[in-house]
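From the pipeline queue, job 12 of 40. The input is one protein chain; the requested action is below.

Action: predict structure.
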Amino acid sequence: MLAAEVDRLLALPAVKANIAAKVGSWLSVRKTEVTVKDPKVFPEFTPSVMSSLTQSLQLFLRDVVERGSLLELVTSRKLYLNQELAGLTELQVSAARRSCRSRPPTRNGPAAS
């Protein structure tokens, strides 16, 4: 009876969000919101990118709490990227599947030889 009540409570969206917030606090996720980068060295690191990175991390933590295990915090290969973040990486984002795959190297991109 107690186990059923615990399962019922853990299925509530508010409880899942609270657990994800606690895990984020444990991992000091808030530090990402106040990270300062030298704009001369990292001109791409804009407030918009900072916000996207924070949101990406929060989505990942929520996914781990809702569907995964704590082991996934260190073993998962999942990424949550919007178009802005994907543009800064060598990945393409598929919005429909919420997955990423390697982007072919571009002539002027980082993979150019």
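Job complete. The longest strand covers residues 91-94.
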